[in-house]
Design goal:
The complex is a heterodimer. By secondary structure, chain A is an alpha+beta fold. Chain A is 25% helix and 37% strand. In chain A, strands 1-7-6-5-4-3-2 form a 7-stranded antiparallel sheet. The relative contact order of chain B is 0.12. The chains are: A alpha+beta, B mainly alpha.
Chain lengths: 172, 121
C-alpha cells in the first residue's frame, strides 16, 4: 500500500528539516552585503512588515555573536541571537539563530508564546550571487540536529556577549 | 537567568532521527509503501541488529510504526510528525518572506529607486 501524502518523501531526503528561499534584488552584491552586515542598515529592514528593529548588535567575525530585537506593531519585543560561523565577503554568511531574552540568553519559543518548549537552534546560510548588477540571494534556514542543541546551553552566551559589548565599545 | 533543561521534546527527537543518512534512506524507502526490516537492510548493507537500532530511533520519534504480527513486522511511515516539522518551518518562512520584502524596499530606497515596486524574480 502506497503512502505518498504530506510531502513526506521530500523532507526525508533532506539532511535536516529546512526551508530554502531565493530572491533577486535589483542592487549590486556589495550593497546587499552591507545591508546584512551593518547594524544601522539591518535595523532598517529586519523583521516582517509593520515590525521595527530597535536593537541590532553584532560582532562581525567568525565566532562573533549578534543580538537582534524586533518589535511587533503592537509593541511586543522578540529577541534573537546567534553566532557567525562563516563570513566570506561579499558572497556567503552562515550563522546560528535562536530565540533569546534581551541579554542574549537562549530561551524556548514558548517564552514568546510560540509553540515549542525546547531550546531550538537554527542554522542560517545566506548566499549572494551577482549577475549584471543584480543580486540573487539564496537563504537556507535549517534546524540543527539535537546533538548541537545541547551544546548551545553549555557555551556560555553571557560571556560571549560581554566580549561583544567590549568590542562594540572599542569600535566607537 | 537560568535556562531550564527539560527532556528532549518531539521536535528534537524528530531532528535527531532525521540527522542520519541511513535513517533518511529508510524513510525514503518507506514513503513508497510499508516494508519488512530485511528489505530495509539490504540496500544499506547493514546487519539486522544495526537496522533494528535505527528503526528504534525512528519509532521513538514517531516517524514509523511497526506491525504487530510476530514474524512479519512491516515498518510503516507516519507522516504526521513530518507535517509538524513542516508547520514549524513555515513560521520561519513567513518571517523571512516579510523581511526580504522589506530588504527589497530598503535596497531600492538606497539606490534612489523608491517608486519602483513589483515582484522580483
Amino acid at each position: 500500500m502506497a503512502r505518498k501524502d504530506s510531502g513526506a518523501p521530500e523532507i526525508a531526503a533532506q539532511s535536516t528539516p529546512k526551508i530554502v528561499l531565493t530572491r533577486t534584488f535589483d542592487a549590486p552584491r556589495a550593497l546587499v552585503w552591507k545591508a546584512w552586515t551593518r547594524p544601522e542598515q539591518l535595523m532598517r529592514w529586519w523583521g516582517p512588515r509593520g515590525f521595527t528593529a530597535p536593537v541590532c548588535k553584532l560582532d562581525l567575525r567568525v565566532g562573533g555573536s549578534y543580538l537582534f530585537c524586533m518589535r511587533s506593531p503592537d509593541g511586543k519585543d522578540y529577541w534573537s541571537a546567534g553566532v557567525y560561523r562563516e563570513l566570506v565577503e561579499p558572497e556567503r554568511i552562515v550563522y546560528t539563530d535562536f530565540f533569546a531574552d534581551e541579554h542574549g540568553n537562549p530561551v524556548p519559543a514558548s517564552f514568546y508564546g510560540l509553540e515549542g518548549n525546547q531550546l531550538q537552534e537554527m542554522l542560517v546560510t545566506i548566499t549572494l550571487e551577482e549577475h549584471q548588477g543584480r543580486t540573487r540571494l539564496t537563504l537556507e534556514h535549517a534546524g540543527l540536529p539535537a546533538g548541537e542543541h545541547s551544546r548551545l546551553a553549555a557555551e556560555g552566551w553571557n560571556s560571549s556577549l560581554d566580549k561583544l559589548a567590549e568590542a562594540l565599545q572599542r569600535t566607537r | 537567568m537560568v535556562v531550564q533543561q527539560t527532556r528532549p521534546d518531539r521536535l528534537d527527537l524528530i531532528f535527531a532521527a532525521l540527522a542520519d543518512p541511513s535513517r533518511r534512506a529508510m524513510l525514503a524507502r518507506l514513503a513508497s509503501g510499508e516494508a519488512p526490516v530485511k528489505e530495509l537492510a539490504e540496500p544499506l548493507r547493514m546487519s539486522l541488529p544495526a537496522v533494528t537500532k535505527h528503526l528504534k530511533v525512528l519509532e521513538r520519534a514517531g516517524l514509523i510504526t511497526r506491525g504487530r504480527r510476530a514474524q512479519w513486522r512491516p515498518c510503516r511511515l507516519e507522516a504526521a510528525p513530518l507535517k509538524e516539522v513542516a508547520d514549524w518551518l513555515e513560521r520561519y518562512r513567513s518571517f523571512w518572506e516579510g523581511s526580504l520584502d522589506r530588504l527589497d524596499g530598503y535596497l531600492q530606497q538606497l539606490q534612489g529607486k523608491e517608486g519602483k515596486h513589483g515582484p522580483q524574480g
